[in-house]
Automatic annotation (TrEMBL):
One Pfam family matching this protein: ADH_zinc_N
Species of the source: Nitrosospira briensis
Listed name of the protein: NADPH:quinone reductase
Gene Ontology molecular-function annotations: oxidoreductase activity
Family annotation (PANTHER family): PTHR45033, ZINC-TYPE ALCOHOL DEHYDROGENASE-LIKE PROTEIN C1773.06C (PTHR45033:SF2)
Location of the Enoyl reductase (ER) domain: 11-333
Length: 335
């Protein structure tokens, strides 16, 4: 079968197209998926540079996210059949409940092989049927960015109608968070470095727009927009350059969901956390149960993920370049 492998992790030169890999045979509890589409995340850039903190499988097949058709099932598989359309889980061993160290150590497209291949064998529990109105390309965007946003807003943030949600930037996670926040009738404060992206977020329902380049004191602007109260939930993807301000922008007793570090690692002063009873909740994508709950909401609302651009399999390296150059919506590779 065809697949990409990372021979060395010093950048894109290590990404090698193979035409001679053996098609995986599904185990008794696994299904074989003919992958139709995959999508990229910020994390895949980290993997490319060999900086993934959990470690990497040598010659790994990259990308955690993908969707396709079940073409074969193991003899113990009961809930899936040939022809089912499924997407893979980022953590194939995380079914429900809290995340454990063992589960955390095994994620697709880094510590174990991922989805940038024609065929992938997945445990039955980690192959999640997706809503029928979605294309393979749309479904391929769900496993990482979609589930992470759902986990942060719904599971950790316990979002309620009328809550104010602060979204930092218009990356993949935050665009899903925007869509899920509006599903819950929340008020969205959207930040971005680009006025053009802010206008596009507005068209998706964002209520208040802040350009964080032109308004470096964006935390003060959030307080102004909320009448001094602050946001109920912050989707914190920035890290070093944003965390301190996020803690100022959240309301007394509010929650900052810790998701990303696009501007590097930060340091936190614990005093405002304690004094203002702020919760900080570390997020690691999410479980299969969260994925299924999110899919039910997507199905009921007919929500469609935002895709920036789709590339063919042979042009996978261009997709990586597009993802790094900046985008509005997910970068997809068809297989
Ligand atoms: N913990 C988890 O489970 C988990 C899951 C998914 C992602 N993540 C992490 O979350 C982060 C975002 O991932 P992604 O896939 O959504 O990334 P992405 O699609 O590449 O988007 C990154 C966005 O971050 C915004 N940004 C950059 N610097 C910023 C700053 N100083 N202040 C505010 N926004 C800034 C930019 O928005 P504008 O272009 O609008 O300015 C950029 O588009 C990454 O660090 C990723 O590793 C973590």
């Amino acid at each position: 079968m065809k697949a990409f492998q990372f021979r060395e992790t010093a950048g894109m030169t290590g990404l090698i197209l193979r035409n001679d890999l053996e098609k995986p045979a599904p185990g008794h509890d696994e299904v074989l998926v003919r992958v139709r589409a995959t999508s990229l995340n910020f994390r895949d850039y980290i993997v490319t540079h060999g900086e993934y903190p959990v470690g990497m499988k040598p010659d790994v097949i990259p990308l955690s996210d993908g969707a396709g058709d079940v073409v074969e099932v193991g003899k113990n598989v009961k809930t899936l059949g040939v022809g089912d359309r499924v997407a893979g889980c980022f953590f194939p061993d995380w079914i429900s409940g809290p995340l454990t160290q063992e589960v955390f150590m095994r994620s697709l497209g880094g510590p174990i092989d991922g989805m940038l291949a024609e065929y992938v064998a997945l445990p039955e529990r980690a192959a999640i049927p997706f809503p029928p109105h979605l294309s393979y390309e749309e479904a391929a965007t769900l496993p990482n960015a979609g589930v992470t946003a759902w986990h942060a807003l719904v599971e950790a943030g316990r979002i309620q109608a009328g809550n104010t949600v602060l979204l930092l930037g218009t990356g993949g996670v935050c665009l899903f968070a925007l869509q899920f926040a509006k599903l819950h009738s929340a008020i969205v404060i959207q930040t971005s470095s680009s006025d053009d992206k802010l206008e596009r977020a507005k068209a998706m329902g964002a209520d208040h727009l802040i350009n964080y380049r032109n308004t470096p004191d964006w935390d003060q602007e959030v307080l102004r927009l909320t009448g001094g109260r602050g946001a109920d939930i912050v989707i914190e993807v920035g890290g070093a350059q944003t965390l301190e301000r996020s803690l100022k922008a959240v309301r007394f007793g509010g929650i900052v969901t810790l998701i990303g570090l696009v501007s590097g690692f930060g340091k936190i002063d614990p005093l405002p956390l304690m004094q203002r009873s702020i919760s900080m909740h570390g997020i690691n994508v999410g479980s299969a149960d969260m994925f299924r709950a999110m899919n039910r909401a997507i199905d009921a609302s007919r929500l469609r993920p935002v895709i920036s651009r789709t590339f063919t399999f042979e042009h996978a390296t261009y997709a990586y370049a597009h993802q790094q150059a900046g985008h509005f919506g997910k970068t997809v590779i068809t297989v």
